[in-house]
User: What shape does this take?
Amino acid sequence: MATLFDRSDVRPTPVVLRRRVWSSWWLILLLGWSGWVLAEPAFHVEHFVAIPQNNAVEIHARVQIGKEALLQEVLDQGQSLVWVIEAEWREPEPFAFIPGVGVHARRQLRWQIHYYPLINQYALENGKQAPMRFHHWQEVVNTLSHIQGFILPLEHGAARGRVALRVYVDIQSLPLPLRLRALLDHWKLESAWIVSAPLSS
Amino acid sequence: MDRQRAPFKLRGWLRALNAGSAPERQRFGPRWGALLLLLAVVAFLGVSFFTSAGGPLSRFFVPMLEISAGIVFFLLVLVLISVVALLLRLRRGEVGSQLATRLVIIIALLSFIPAAIVFGFSWQYLNRGVDSWFSSAVQSALDQALNVAKAGVDRYRNSTLLAAESIAQALVGESNSNAILTVIALRDQYHLSSVTLFSSDNRIIATSSNNLALAPRLPRQEILAMDEGHPTANIEPQPDGSLLVKALIPVLSPHLGESNRMLYVEQPIPEQLTKAAEAVQVAYNKYHQLMLMREPMKTAFQLSLAVALLLAVLSAVWMGLHLARRLTAPIARLAAGTQAVARGEFIPLQTIASHDELGVLLHSFNNMTRQLARAKQQAAVAQEQAEQRRLYLETVLGQLSSGILTFDGDNCLAEVNAAAVQILQEELPRGSSLSALQDGVTLEPLWKLVTDWVEHPRNSMQKELHLERSDGPQTLIVHGAQFADAAGSHGFVLVFDDISTLVSAQRSAAWSEVARRLAHEIKNPLTPIQLSAERLRRKYLEKLGDEGETLDRATRTIIHQVDALKVLVDAFSEYARQPQLELRPLDMNALILDVLDLYKGQESGIEIRAELGADLPAVRADVHRLRQILNNLLRNAMDALHGTSEPPVDQHIYIRTRLTDVGSAKMLELSVMDDGPGFPAELLARVFEPYVTSKVKGSGLGLAIVRRIVEEHGGQIIADNQGANGGARVVMEFPLG
Assistant: This one.
């Protein structure tokens, strides 16, 4: 029985067909792109505290490290990793959603993680401090999980705005094949940016 | 101006794109394809370069790989669009689509097969090559080597720890002052690099080192790392690459309440062992790194190979499509051109700037088209001329008074002119065969004559033929001639004239001559005869008395007969008279009314009605002759009406005048009709001939004289039985002006 809104005999117009074709293309592209984007980050920053100081912000945080086995496998196979702690001081500005816009200070702390099979030790080195050595992987994880007193210098006066923090393993420092593997296997050894509450001096 | 965009039709665009007929602004395929192809090649080369280059540039590998994949994807989409377009053309059976499809398939196969073979071999070689880097023996050897190195290093660590424990044991109970000597002595004894005794508050109590330049270092890290005060010995890599054994031993105090001292010992591992162990460690690490990168390396190379294969195949297919498009576009144009030629449209094709065979073919086709166009134009001109000639000939034939029939080689009627139809008084369908034409009765003598002539061919034929018509005999003079032209067509043509009028005129002329001679020969002796008869009567009738009755009757008969002969001779004289007309403008209606005045008052029982047209122009005529015409016709009509009943009752004679058009000429028509019995049918065709009459009395010259007078005035006369109630009617037409 035909109803008032029976559209079974209505054929789509060329304009509608064209829209459908283009919509299909965009959907395919979106799905392919989202496969990478929507992969879960391996690290999560928790308990993020930014304490304003004179011309600096002191940062404390806990990092929940996932894919430990993968990291240990890579290290045990003789491949060093670069652990990066990155903090930014951001102020609200137009177009702040664009990466880099509104960022007034940034600091990176890079730790190189080595494993020495000869002496069965893990070492954390940053080229400035004395290396930290660990006999057990879990000690390394515990050390990396705690960000204590990370100082973000502020060159432009009193702190306001927000501080953002993230940690990641620098994939670019890996050899080329491992970078490809990281890309294809969606390692995503990084955390999302965690933004603090608005700072107040 | 509101311009509406035409809806974009994907299928039409795809077909046009592949056929090379898409609008310029929509033909982004080749340009974008070439650009993408170039970008893909560059990206692939970049991937290959960054793959092989390593080092800092290798960070561009992944982006370049992603760019390559993206470009290859879009190239794939572009090629797929072109392939779909080609398939659509193939499905529609468009010209050139099959050739294009074959070309694309051949090129794709020619490129794919070698590329696939190379790809397969490379794949195999790559897998085997990478796998050949690794073996369990190597791995086992490296593990063993590392274990040996570990054992060597551990031996030093343990020996250092044992030495440190021995020194610590020796220091138990010794005072701080004595401990200095003990430390120095035992360090030398155990060949240690450095021995330092710390108090519980990290003060140095005693130290001994083979390097006096360096102050002893506080082992804070080691103390922190020491597990619950147990002796510990660690090996630490040094910045210079050497390995240093660090041992930390608590020196127990024998006195209760006194805190323990700590003995810190450093002993470098011998350089030879360190280098060997480091070399083993480096080799071990590299091997395991390679093992870690084994599959990713394969994947990287496989991706590069796949991209290369895809690039090669897609490039080949795209170039095949492009080539097919370039090749088939002129063919499609040619096909469209031939179809246009088939439709009679000789439009030159758009040429291409090519000197290859297709270019020459297009050029030749255009030449042919131009020549065909010229030939068609010439043929059209010739046809037009022929048509004009035919129309001219037809017009001429139509204007001819002679009837013309042409027959083709199959004896079928080809052409008939209007005069033929008029003369033969019969519609003759073109294409009728001669045998079919013989069905009629009237024309049977004609067709029989023609058939005899055709069956016994002679070049020409001329015959006089008499046809019996319902309105009298018809005399035709028939000419026949065979023809055969250079084109091979042959047939014959019949030309005939209706000479009935001519025959009639000849007869009339003959009668005039006879009448003139009769009038001349008879009239002269009549008067003497009459005079002689009257003299005989005067001289002998009275003398003979009663016996003169015979003479009286004889002379009276002679006199009466001579009078009759005179009347007859006068009629002959009138008939044979040479035309001597005094033409003056004449009011026909006035003349008619004047003549009718003479007939008024006669108690004949016949009513003469004049139905005269108004405003008739004057006609140039001889008033006496026209009066004679009217009298003759009225007398004939009265005689005819008298013959129907005695006396005539309610009989009528009508005289009518009016203007008529005969062609472009104005004529004055004069009709005299009655409602009597009409002309006898057998005499109707000959009523104007002398001595043709239905009356018992009369010379038979009345109507002959009337026709003569009418013809002398340039007019025409006909007689029929279309008067009132089928009565006789005589219609005359006199020219005006």
Remarks:
- The two ends of chain A are 73 Å apart (CA to CA).
- Confidence is low (pLDDT under 50) at residues 1-10 of chain A.
- DSSP finds four helices and nine strands in chain A.
- The longest strand of chain A covers residues 103-116.
